[in-house]
Amino acid sequence: MATTKIPSSTGVSPDAAQDMAGDGMKTVMMPVGVPGYTLRQEPRTMPATQPPVLPINADLKFIGKSPERWDGPAKVSGRARYTADIQLPGMLYAKFVDATVPHAKVISVDTSEAEKVAGVKGVFVIENLLGSAKLLNPSLEVSKYPIVRYAGQPIAAVAATNPQIAEDAAKLVKVKYDVMPFVVDMDQARRADAPMVFPGPANQAGTAGGGGGAADVPQTGNIHGPSVHTRGDIEQGFKDADVVVEEHYTTQVQVHNALESHGVVADWKPDLLTVWASTQGTASVREGLAGFFNLPKSQVRVITEFMGGGFGAKFGPGNPGVVAAALSKQTNAPVRLMLDRKEEQLSVGNRPSSDQTLRIGAKKDGTLTAIHLVSYGTAGCGTGAGCAGPATNMYKYASLRTEESDIFTNAGPATAFRAPGHPQGAFALEQTIDELANRLGMDPLDLRDKIDENSARRVEREIVRNSAIWKSRHATPNVDHGHIKRGVGVGQAVWYRNISMDSAAEVRVHQDGSVEVLSAVQDIGGGLKTVMAQILSEQFGVPPQQVSVKIGDTNYPVGPNSGGSVTTASLTPAVRDAAWNAAQNFLASIAPALGAQPDDLVLANGEVSSKSGKFQPISFRSAAAKMNTSEVSAQARRIPDYDRKAYETYGGVDVAEVEVDMEIGLIRVKRILAVHDCGRPMNPKQTMNQINGGVIQGMSYALYENRLIDSDYGLMVNANLDRYQIAGSREIPQIEVQLIQSYIGQSSTDASGIGEPGGIIGTPAAIANAFYNATGVRIRSLPMTPAVVLAALANTSQQKETA
Amino acid sequence: MNQFVLVDCTTVDGALSQLKDGSVVKAAGVDLLDRMKNGTTTPSRLVNIRNISALRGIHPSPEGVTIGALTTLTEISEHPLLQSHYTILTDACGTVATPHIRNMATLGGNLLQELQCWYFRSEEYECLRKGKEICFAFSGLNQYHAIMDYGTCPSVAPSTSAVALLGLNASVELTSAKRGKRMVAIKDLYVHPDANPTKFTVLEPDELLTAVMIPQPAKGTRSAYQKYGEKQSNDWAIADAGVVLEMDGNVCRKAAIVMGSASPVVRHAPEAEAMLAGKPITEEIARAAGKAAMQGAPLQTAMQGAQPLSMNAYKVQMFPIAIYRTILLAAGQMGRDPSAAS
Ligand SMILES: Cc1cc2nc3c(=O)[nH]c(=O)nc-3n(C[C@H](O)[C@H](O)[C@H](O)COP(=O)(O)OP(=O)(O)OC[C@H]3O[C@@H](n4cnc5c(N)ncnc54)[C@H](O)[C@@H]3O)c2cc1C
Ligand code: SF4
Fold first, then answer.
1. Which of A416, A421, A505, A616 pairs as cysteine with A575 (C-beta 3.0–4.6 A)?
2. Burial class of residue B63 (count of CB atoms within 10 Å of its CB; 0-12, 13-18, 19+)
3. Which sign does the torsion angle of CA A584, A589, A593, A597 carry?
4. CA distances from A444 to A173, A461, A489 (A)
């Protein structure tokens, strides 16, 4: 299961640093710790070519500040071009033909009627489907077309001169099915007599964003697993325990529902395939298309100028990418294929459900002696429902056993979704820890101080302890009288420092004084462009608006796929190193004309000055005019973290205040305090934005979102944004983000990612614990709708915890 | 969405003359276009009445108030006179969907919108109300479905404005080119599925809903509406209550209590109404009335009282609370409920 770590495509070998040991290294002091709490200087050894150590944010001019979004004006004025805005001469519009049944063998696909429609230029029938798990032994199924394993699975696509024609013609494609028995309900699928989703063992690989499940596990019926991990002696661990808490939790399937749907515009030319894609990884789309069509990578170009959200579901070309490219090749015209809302809900990924039994043993003083997690979950006809990440990586324990299984069902395959497995896992873990604190008569923060070794979270709990919201928490549950009860609860997050070595950038300085930075990396909305501009500003002393940021194009140096919260942590050191090197080249280039040595020159405040006072400071622009070539540049790529082992994980602490209407069964989240760290915050405002988004998505998951499939017919009933409930403006609580600076001394920018640790992991658990604090009743099932709340309250007698 | 012809009309007569050959009326199109996009309606011809300015406006008179069919929900909910004399209606219209939708949606379209049952709204599910044999909700996902008086189809009445208008004893004016105008009371506008599963209202294909008439409320009338859902923004009612109280001081002369999302057709709760009549309003009596509403005698079917489906027993818990809190709100004894949509 991809629970302990994001797969290696985004990881760096901890040993990589050793390769560089020896000559050419330097050891310097770096700021480490949290200013105001634990800040100190520690030595770090790194290549001698690394730029000077950055001081903490307080001592910088641009990095660590929050200038306005570099591309904000383009976005709010509508100038920003998203994939669906791309218009090419002669462009065709494609529409999928989607399966209308949940499980079937496709006997034939008759496209003749569709082809006759005026304006239809091409029809493509899929023979090689992406996304779902693959049978290890394909000969168990003999079929020309992919077996339909979920309703909504793409079968074919029609390209026409306008979207309306394509849609009408798609309805004329006749698919003949040999329907098979199906199962969409996870509990039914676990039964021995359930219809089989796959006739034999099947595996699904993860994407560049993670997800995917364990491959070398048993498969019985629809049960793929368990994938077992153990540490220490679990039996002894429970024997050593003074208290054992065992509880059962369930969570639902959540659908990504990014604002911008999946899609591409593909333009197949004899020597170059150009694809505009709504993607989290230009590199992953290029790699996927080159592989699928057997093209050299140099003949595939992928462009993502602007991106409207992905949450983990947008890596690689996917079925829309390969089908659009194939149709473009076939019709000799550019083809646009954007999914509609229904397809978004059915065929491009989701967060798997979970069914977890978690058992924790502890000593009287809180020390954890054993953690045992047995989890099931359905990733539809994919895998990746494991959720042992938090149980494995959050706390210190003497022994651990996790058994994670996927249950195949006839539903769309899951894919990575913002912190795969972690909101589910933390929902169970953090409630159980809360319950354990109750049993031990300990304060929940004190218990965590005892068992949590992460130094940043320790500081974060200190901030929580001193916060108004935490001080307003009732020390015992169910204190309020009347029909509204108030409660406060806490939930922690754990995440991993994932670094992608495919992170490079080029910085150019032109004789006219303009500066630009180029990388294939995409900005998926977090604000990377702004951060890149800030880094150049810090180096060259010019304001961010004067820097050109050119990204989202595989013509530029390779960039990381934005999954696993890798982007800022991986790319910014490459940008800074390139900027530093370009600045050195720039100074060398102007030094002769200034009659100075390069190392006598200083770049700051938009000026070039001389340390020794050789000349009066001159503006950056007039200095650039003295360059001895029209352009100087430098490229840099990510080097490994300086001292990786000490900083594998980080996280955050989220606190929720809720009000529960005991009669109506409605939970209102009133306030969230989210205390988080991500190394050096490069742009605090944008970072807090990410955390706000994570909190909102987390509470939306906790209270509302739920993919609903009718188990008699196998069709989703709420494949829209009306009945698929997502938090709206009125549901959003007051969110206070406390972002700490947590220097770890790992790279030339020392940044970590925030997309996943920030909010979505800790918030659902915090809300559940707040509900308990308000009512004295536990909710162990998501989403916490009025139906679930009223049922839980009706059961109070069975639920009392001994405090 | 299929391709279609759009006919734009600016007069009532013009529009009426276009109501032929299976044409479908489009007001704001919030409901209609949604059904066209999900493939459950595929009209070849739309008659756009949105630009008939004569059908827009709020006209008070000594007899009451007449509201043009194309008046938007926002115009209604923000109207000062309606707010003071017909609070139930401004409350109801003000809680529909979102501000954007209320700025578009018309009163006529809101009354005539089709069912929200998610099976009905999926093109793959051909149910009773689409002329087929089966209802998918009984054995399927029915957490938002009806708990009372549903008979063969437990979809719930979708229109929030209808709850208020039933409580106010309003009528609609239906106009056709051939037969002229007729008035139909709101209580007679909707067709129960057991009477005719594929006909949702008594409106004929050649008719337009042109106006809504609400009689002058009796002296001492106070009213309110509250809607409860999973969310406050952009959501439908799970439980709701419209309350009209004719008061003599603190004594209730006569009460109307109406529920929307309890049954396929918006309905009164006569047991609850009887409980309040002639009594002072107190929390105790309001709670008792809420409970009594769930005993509901059959109005349209043979079903006695609330009979929840497999997944919606919680609605039977919510309705009495919605009713009691809204009675107290109408009586001025409780503020607007923060748990209700606003
Ligand atoms: C997210 C969401 C939440 C919602 N929540 C609610 C809610 O809580 N309560 C609620 O009541 N509604 C709710 N709605 C529905 C919305 O209020 C209705 O769709 C809207 O009021 C319809 O009005 P319209 O003018 O757009 O009608 P249209 O879509 O134009 O028409 C609706 C139907 O009525 C017919 N029609 C319209 N006007 C006339 C006329 N004058 N004469 C004859 N036939 C006519 C049309 O042919 C069509 O069949 C919600 C909608 C959404 C999307
Ligand atoms: S409840 Fe009514 S509308 Fe829904 S499936 Fe059943 S018959 Fe159709």
1. A505
2. exposed
3. positive
4. 60, 10, 9
Out of A665, A715, A786, the one facing B122 most closely (by C-beta) is A715
Please tell me the distance from the alpha carbon of residue B23 to that of residue B5, in angstroms, as a whole number. Answer: 9
Q: Which helix (H) or strand (E) holds A469?
A: helix A468-471
Band of residue A6 on the pLDDT scale cut at 50, 70, 90? very low
Q: What are the tokens at B250? A: 């603190």
CA distance A505 to A526: 18
Which of B34, B96, B261 for mutating ligand 1's site (highest number of atoms within 8 Å of CB)? Answer: B96
Whole-angstrom Cα distance, residue A273 to residue A295?
9
Task: Confirm or reject CATH 3.40.50.970 for domain B1-335, answering yes or no.
Answer: no
**Cα A675 from Cα A654, distance rounded (Å):** 6
The length of chain A, given as a count of residues? 803
Each domain of chain A, given as residue ranges in start order, spans 51-80+499-637, 83-180+262-338, 409-497+645-793
Cβ contact, residue pair A712, B3, below 8 Å: no
CA of B48 to the centre of ligand 1 (A): 14
pLDDT in tens, A58-76: 999 999 999 999 999 999 9
| Contact partners, residue A701, CB within 8 Å, separation at least 6 | A254, A351, A423, A760, A764, A782, A783
- Which residue's CA lies nearest to atom 6 of ligand 2? B135
CATH fold for domain A409-497+645-793: Aldehyde Oxidoreductase; domain 4 (3.30.365)
In chain B, where are the structural domains located? 1-335
ipTM of the complex: 0.96
Nearest atom in ligand 2 to the alpha carbon of residue B142 is 1
Q: Which of A65-69, A204-208, A357-361 has the lowest mean pLDDT?
A: A204-208
Helix axes A684-703, A422-440, angle to 10 degrees: 80
Nearest to B118 among A663, A723, A731 (CB): A723
Instruction: Give the position of tokens 């050789």.
Output: A614
Rounded to the nearest 10°, the torsion over CA B153, B154, B160, B165 is: 60
Using an 8 Å Cβ cutoff, are B242 and B161 in contact?
Answer: no
Q: Are the folds of A83-180+262-338 and A409-497+645-793 the same?
A: no
A83-180+262-338 CATH: 3.90.1170.50
pTM: 0.95
Write out residues with Cβ below 6 Å of ligand 2.
Answer: B 115, 117, 119-120, 127-129, 135-137, 153-155
Residue B13's CB is within 10 A of a number of other CB atoms, namely: 11
